[in-house]
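no rush on this but wanted to send it before i forget. theres a chain ive been looking at and ive put its sequence and its fold in C-alpha cell form underneath. i want to understand how the C-alpha cells follow from the sequence so walk me through it. thanks a lot i owe you, the record is right below:
>
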Amino acid sequence: MKALIHSSHTDIFPTMEEVRRFCKPGREDKTCVWMIQDSEGFRCSRHHKGFALSDKFRKGLTIAKRDGCDLVNKFDPYKVEQGSDYPGIEFEIVTE
C-alpha cells in the first residue's frame, strides 16, 4: 500500500491484490467500511474519516461491517517520519 500523509489527513492507496486481501469487497460483514472507489481506483479512508460515514457505521447503517484491517489500523501516520520504515505500507509525507 502507498500512503500519502498530509497535515490534515492521510490517503492510502491499496493495489487490487491488497483490496481483495484486506478490504474484501462484496463480502458485507467482512468488507471494510473505509474502502472507497473513485475515478483513480480504490483508496482507504481509515485515516481520512468523514463524520457522516463514521456516524452511519456506528449506528450499523452501512452494508460493510468491518472497521478496517490490522495493517491500516496499526498504522499511525502521525508517528512516522520521512525515511522510516513501516512494514506493508510505503509512505510519503506531503508538505503543503
